[in-house]
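User: Good morning. I'm curious how flavin-adenine dinucleotide would be positioned relative to this chain. Could you predict the structure with it bound?
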Amino acid sequence: MTSSVIANIPSLWREMSGGRSELPSLQNDRDTDVVIVGGGYTGLAAAHRLIERGVATVVLEANRIGWGASGRNGGVVSAKVRQSFPAIAAQHGLETARSVHRLCHTAVDELEALIEALGLTQAGFQRCGNLRCAHHERAFKSIADEAEWLQRALGDGDQRVLSAEAVHDETGSRAFFGGVLSEGVGTLLPLAYVEGLAEVLVKRHGLALFEQTPATGIRRTDGGVSVITPGGEVRARQVILATNAYSGQTEAGERIRTRLVPFRSSIIATEPLAPAVQQRLLVNNRSYGETRRMMRWFRKVDGRFLFGGRGAFGKHDSRVAFDALQRSMISLFPDLANVKVAYRWSGHVGMTLDALPHVGRFDDRMVFAAGYNGAGVSLSNYMGRLAADFSLGDSPDVSLFGASNFRRVPCYPLREFGIRLTAGWYQLLDAMGR
Ligand SMILES: Cc1cc2nc3c(=O)[nH]c(=O)nc-3n(C[C@H](O)[C@H](O)[C@H](O)COP(=O)(O)OP(=O)(O)OC[C@H]3O[C@@H](n4cnc5c(N)ncnc54)[C@H](O)[C@@H]3O)c2cc1C
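Assistant: Good morning! Here's the predicted structure, ligand included:
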């Protein structure tokens, strides 16, 4: 690796990571068994699995490692998908809900196992739990019922219902009507994790990983594929597309791009909190989320308060959107009224039509994993691993996450309009407490 300046988006994570050396870009043609396009959690987890199975692998990353969602996210490690498990059971039956639930929990276990096996202590992984805070009495009843259902129908003993008073004692906010604590999940430091993973795979396992190497096209060849980049082509038997919500960068990502709706998700991080405020807010240092459809989440890192949320924030960051996030934070936590915001950043999450992630084959030479709907820290790692298995000809059981359910977005050019309409509708329902 040669040393260089960091060409990556500014964020608290970037500041905390302190920078790292740059990896080379591809400068010649290469032959390998599997080529992976995209060097986020999905792509690197796939690479790790292939190395474990003794398969020659090349990873191509268009930007720097951690440039995509894997270096920008909130670091909330969850064991869920956007659809609730009771809703999945109602639509697809109890056995299917059970298998999706199992996949989500396996994803957290696999993430922890990977971090431990590779000694990635810099990732700061902790099973500190997540507290879901109800923004309305009706929402409280609904999450309490869901917790009871999870215990009864799926044997999930990780959930604990907390009263409004208990949620106030823990969060320091009077805005909530109660909450549900999920104990088995946790948090990590997103960029430190993805950078650490890349470094171990390159330095310890000899992974051929190229930064600033966009795949500009993919062609079928006799018995394989050829992935074209500005500096050379990579010939392989199989290609794994791991470009998720950033699939629009070149036409190589087309088959994922047309199946996802990218939604902007934004984060603000305050200046370090005064000791008295520090001791009042989020005292158990978990991750926290709200029940609103346009969900806000929060956690403390490095003595600062982080507050994030999804919204119809358009193609680019805007000060107006970040200011709205700050107002929302202050309305929940009036203690933060005079605390300055030090960092603002955002990124794209990839939403799917069925609100579920997908992994599998596009054809006999192309495998993919994508569409985590904003809950991909643990799932992208697990599904990257499963994508590697698919690329070697295996057919792991992935329940509803299979390729046949990964449908194209109809009327794709109208998606921006659709996002705004949906977000506006959700905001209205949230405001009405529905
Ligand atoms: C602001 C934000 C907050 C989030 N918070 C959370 C959270 O708290 N918890 C949670 O579970 N999930 C969260 N997510 C979602 C989570 O970060 C993602 O699901 C996960 O990181 C997806 O990983 P990935 O590797 O599939 O995609 P990415 O990390 O986006 O990686 C895709 C990579 O592909 C590269 N690429 C694209 N096209 C090409 C090409 N043609 N050639 C080569 N490379 C290419 C891109 O440069 C990019 O680096 C959040 C996302 C965002 C944006």
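The first strand starts at residue 30 and ends at 31. Confidence is low (pLDDT under 50) at residues 1-7.
Let me know if you'd like a different ligand tried.
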